[in-house]
Specification:
Elements: E1 2-7, E2 11-20, H1 21-28, E3 36-40, E4 43-47, H2 49-56, E5 65-69, H3 70-79
Parallel strand pairs: 2-4
Antiparallel strand pairs: 1-2, 2-5, 3-4
Helix pairs in contact: 1-3
């Protein structure tokens, strides 16, 4: 996701990612909830372990998608152990 916007923590940002609400909420609490991520052409996404498991079982994603600025995305990735990109 590209385009301008303002992150409450990092201020004005040009680069944004889409993550599940589970990751967004957990970041606020400094909690790791898993981080399955991917993307291309500058568009990145991530799901928590719960969402990933539900999707793998053929169910709908339980958490709605929310935007995170690039800096918050990196913080969530680091908090969850810097997992490899999903291919």
């Amino acid at each position: 996701m590209s385009g301008g916007g303002t992150c409450l923590k990092h201020g004005p940002q040009e680069s944004w990612a889409i993550v599940c609400l589970g990751i967004g909420d957990a970041l606020k609490e400094d909690q790791a909830v898993g981080f399955v991520w991917g993307g291309d052409d500058g568009a990145r996404w991530a799901l928590c372990s719960h969402c990933d498991k539900q999707i793998a079982q053929g169910h709908a994603r339980p958490h709605k998608p929310v935007p995170l600025c690039n800096a918050c995305f990196i913080e969530a990735w680091q908090l969850n152990g810097k997992p490899e990109k999903f291919e």
